[in-house]
Amino acid sequence: PMSYETILVEKKGNVTLITLNRPQALNALNSRVLEDLIQAFAAFEADRTQGCAVLTGLGEKAFAAGADIKEMVDKAGAEFYAQDFFAGWTSQIVKTTRKPWIAAVNGFALGGGCELAMMADFIIASENARFGQPEIKLGVAPGMGGSQRLARAVGKAKAMDMCLTGRMMDAAEAERTGLVSRVVPLDQLLAEALAAAEAIAAMPPLAAMMNKEMVNMAFETTLDTGLILERRMFQVLASTEDKAEGMAAFVEKRPGTWKGQ
Ligand code: CAA
Predict the structure, then answer these.
(1) Nearest Cα residue to 67 out of 107, 29, 114
(2) How far is CA 201 from the centre of its chain?
(3) Neighbours of 77 (CB within 10 A)
(4) Do the beta carbons of residue 229 and residue 216 sit within 8 Å?
(5) ipTM > 0.95, yes or no
(6) How many angstroms is it from 100 CA to the middle of ligand 1?
(7) Is the C-beta atom of 196 inside 6 A of ligand 1?
(8) Ligand 1 in contact with 25 (CB < 6 A)?
(9) Cα 68 to averaged position of ligand 1 atoms, centre (Å)
(10) Global pTM value
(11) Would you say the CB of residue 163 lies under 6 angstroms from ligand 1?
């Protein structure tokens, strides 16, 4: 297995568990974390035994308290633009991970931490989770998708409230507003997220990838175009061996077995 400096990666059957491992900095996201996550997600994506991933933070306090402020404090302004700082999160994790993955948010998910959680296909939160985009208090603004994904997730009123006041949302408000799909006690968070991931990993894999792609399409296109794309993807899935098996298994009242083709 590969070893990483800032994350832990474990394969649990068909599920990859990735744990942010800088608890002394509340799992703040620096360039090394990004490099490690790019490697880990690429390995997950390439491994045919792995069907779903879970991303969480080590410790009881934080999923991730944001981009690493200590890495940014002395960085020259023009460098952020010259390096296209933060671009890799979208280009090398979100866009290249076609398999489903879940964020299990176990505490603070602030700034880049909230943004990283929102890159997941869905979020399961512990009761002590806190979400926020406090960048405004630092004289900046979200840089890893917060303004765009939060607005899409919870609508304009809540997104503006969060970005302009920098306040935190608790787990109940996050569930009520649709930011997270489930809230569970902290001591059940990992079990709940891993069980959800196992359920997904047990699905026909091409169908899992296309379901993910379809839902994401809803945020990229008009309804008419999205509906056409949805039908085309359905029609593509209908030609797979797993469709033949899945429907036959239903009719024959037995569990299906999947080939991923
Ligand atoms: N970057 C670097 N270090 C961080 C950090 C961050 N985002 N968040 C916390 N830490 C460090 C602290 O500096 C501290 O380290 P030391 O012990 O060496 O001083 C350690 O983690 C523990 O943190 P605190 O002592 O502050 O813990 P607390 O319980 O008093 O407060 C907190 C917890 C409210 C989450 C507070 O740490 C906090 O406000 N953190 C910063 C949150 C923030 O502003 N995030 C946005 C960052 S900018 C960004 O993310 C840009 C973007 O859009 C991509």
Answers:
(1) 29
(2) 16
(3) 7
(4) no
(5) yes
(6) 29
(7) no
(8) yes
(9) 8
(10) 0.98
(11) no
